[in-house]
Amino acid sequence: MISARLILFALVAGTALVSRASDLDAPLPDPLGLEEALRLAGTGVPALIAADAGREAAEADYLAADGLDDTRIDFHGSLRAVEPSYKSDNDDHNDSRARLLLSKRLYDFGYGEALRSAADKGRQASEFELLEARQANVLAVMRAFFDVILSDLEYARDNEAMSVAFIAMDKARDENELGRLSDVELMQLESVYEQTRSQRLISEQSQRLTRSRLAIVMGRPKDLVSEVRMPDIQLSEAAEEDFNTYWERVESAHPRLRALGMRLESAMKQLASARISDRPVLSAELEAGAYNRSSATTHPVGGGLLLEVPLYTGSRKDAAVMRAQADVTSAEAALLEARLQLRQDALESWLERDRLRSDIRTAGVEGDYRELYLDRSRALYDLEVRTDLGDAMTRISEVRVKHARALFDWAINEAGIKAMTGSLLEDEK
Fold first, then answer.
1. Residue 94 — very low, low, confident or very high, per pLDDT cuts 50/70/90?
2. What is the DSSP letter of 41?
3. Is the per-residue pLDDT at 165 higher than 70?
4. From 10, 114, 185, 303, which residue has the greatest number of CB atoms within 10 Å?
5. Helix, strand, or coil here: 234?
6. Nearest to 409 by CA among 281, 212, 235
7. pLDDT digits (tens, 9 = 90+) for 48-70
8. How far apart are CA 56 and CA 58, in angstroms?
């Protein structure tokens, strides 16, 4: 019987899917913000599809293990013709029959419970694996979104540099025609212009490529955004906890470590079930039958207890135990490897905070200097004094790229730090 809770869950899930599908059908906002990109990201991402399929497979394994002692009803029917024995009192040739058999496993000495527990651990592991996949996709969307902004800033920088180089080359041509500039100096400026033009073409192509990459990681490969909004990224205060305290939180909450821990527990339960796989099984049976040809051995109703005791299984049990033991060892190694690697990753992200703070401050100070320098160059230009106004404008564009990259690296690093404790998606709950 389907429970009311299951029906309610299906209705809520269905409503969520309809709402989600409606979001995916809607065009992307223009300009697109980071929060909107994360909210409108689709589910058609291979990693998310694979993780969700793994969760469904684990759920199916649990249902199979949980149903091992379910009541079973079988129908057996046969159409048979026989030649009666000369000793039989019934000389009817039609020996057709129909039987309805109800059976239920009553006790198997812990084998079913071990399988059920192993499947349950696998089911929990798949949930953490799905969480890690979802967090990884959020980080991928953030990186792709920031890359779009950086490509736009880099294009603006390279377009500015090309314009400056063109003006310099154009003036040089006039100077060359008047005999005030040598051919060698003119060719040098033409070479600089061609280099900047080539770099601008690369930046222009990067704009298209980064937008395509964003669309792909959002699961909407046909929706290439035209404009994006610069997010408001704030620097957080320095963490009060030290790294060891942070690592304790990572070690206890990282989705991968929790998933691998569950995989290890599942493997150990599988090993326990393999060791008792040859235990006796006690079942109950009820039978109702209809027979066209009655005899002393046919009966309309029957029931009883059935005890199955394996006496000899050959090497099957030993093989199952060896395989399960190997799975336990493999799971232990995977958990240890992940713990060591994640500790190093966590330390790098933790220490990266100080460097990124320094990079952002440096870029900010350099930006202030370049702004003042540009104002001075513009003032001298207005006074018709020879100045490096074009170069100053290009330097401003370079600083903007540097400052944005530092801010984006900071945001990605902070999101990665939250992801390591499994809390990146808490705002969605």
1. confident
2. -
3. yes
4. 114
5. coil
6. 235
7. 999 999 999 999 999 999 998 89
8. 5
What are the DSSP E strand ranges found in 296-383?
301-308
pLDDT score at 338: 96
Q: What is the pTM of this model?
A: 0.81
pLDDT 10s digits, 320-338: 999 999 999 999 999 999 9
CA–CA separation, 417 vs 428, rounded Å?
17
Give, in words, the CATH class of 34-70+108-278+313-420: mainly alpha
Number of H helices, E strands in the chain: 9, 4
Tell me what the pLDDT averaged over the chain comes to: 84
The number of C-alpha atoms within 13 Å of 84 and in the hemisphere containing its C-beta is: 13
Mean pLDDT of 203-224: 93
